[in-house]
Amino acid sequence: MKIKTGDVNLGDVFWSWIGAFIGVGLVSFLHFNLFSGTDLVLLIGSFGASAVLIYGAIGSPLAQPRNLLGGHIFSAVVGVSCFRLFSSQLWLASALAVATAIAVMQMTGTVHPPGGATALIAVIGSPEIHDLGYLYAFVPVGVGALIMLAVALAVNRLAGRKYPEYWY
């Protein structure tokens, strides 16, 4: 679908909307239905920002699978570590989590801006998030990011859009 209005390709807008709706909708559905009543969560705020990248800015280096998965998972581990080490000083844990997550993403070539929020959520999140400990890096972070990636691969293929630009 290649309908252009000015600089906006309405076909891209349509497919970005579809991808974000399905990706966030699937993670949300599982969170509120499958994980409800358990100590696990699947939906975190930083996935909203990831949706913008992997459905709406698919050519960006920040939206590629390596960045999506690595950025979230590395940042989650950093955030949990900072919370565990400095939970008595949340201001310090918060600052260290975000700053260190950025450094780790840069060193590993996995910069994904929502990863900063993923690290911060590990520090300022709910008691349920804190109780997960390092499991947070796998559920919700890893599993949720994988679900959203699978949707991005499928929707962008259906749309005839090239995603990913590269895997690693």
Characteristics of this structure?
single chain; 168 residues; mainly alpha; two-stranded antiparallel ribbon; 7 helices; 2 strands
Explain the overall architecture.
The protein has a two-stranded antiparallel ribbon. α3 (65-86) packs antiparallel against α7 and α4 (90-108) runs antiparallel to α5 (114-124). It has one domain. The chain starts with a strand and ends in a 10-residue tail after the last helix. The radius of gyration is 16 Å and the shape is globular. The chain has helices at residues 10-34, 46-56, 65-86, 90-108, 114-124, 127-132, 138-158, and strands spanning 4-5, 8-9. It is mostly helical and 168 residues long.
